[in-house]
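Lecture 7 notes: from sequence to structure.
We start with the chain below.
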Amino acid sequence: LGLKNKIFRESDGAILSNLKSYNLTDTIIRKKDGTALYITQDLALAELKKEGVIENTHYIYVVGNEQKLALQQVFAISDQLGITQKDSFTHISYPFILLKGQGKMSSRKGNTVFIDKLIDEVKIELNKINSELNNDDIEKLASAAIKFSLLKYSRTSEINFDIQDSINTSGFSAIYI
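Predicted structure tokens for the same chain:
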């Protein structure tokens, strides 16, 4: 449909978007070997939403900052194809979370940290600081330390999480405050 309506163009066997009118860079829709890319799945999802399989009038994508351009392209192409108007989409981005000594958390790479494990690690470190705290206080302090350490950053800035910084008794931490 995109090729027939001259929304897309062909180049060396690949199919490309034409997003100049949206002030966006073009993207590959299908590689020259016929391989579909993620964008085709996103467009198929938008089509399902339009058909009422997923009923709504506004769609919010909560996806990392690094996907901003890709989502803008999806929204624009969806608009071009008449699937869903570009204004029906909102991208709420979130930042990378970097763990001290471990780099960026990534489910694809298998280096995610489960909150229960993180809470346990923070509780162990809090016990080292003050072994006389009761379990309820340790639990509350651990939760506060983690929340504060994540929320002290802006929604779009990279988060550098460090357990020692989160429980610092003389710095910008929940424990200190």
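Points to note: Helices lie at 38-50, 68-80, 115-129, 135-151, 163-166. The CA atoms of residues 24 and 73 lie 7 Å apart.
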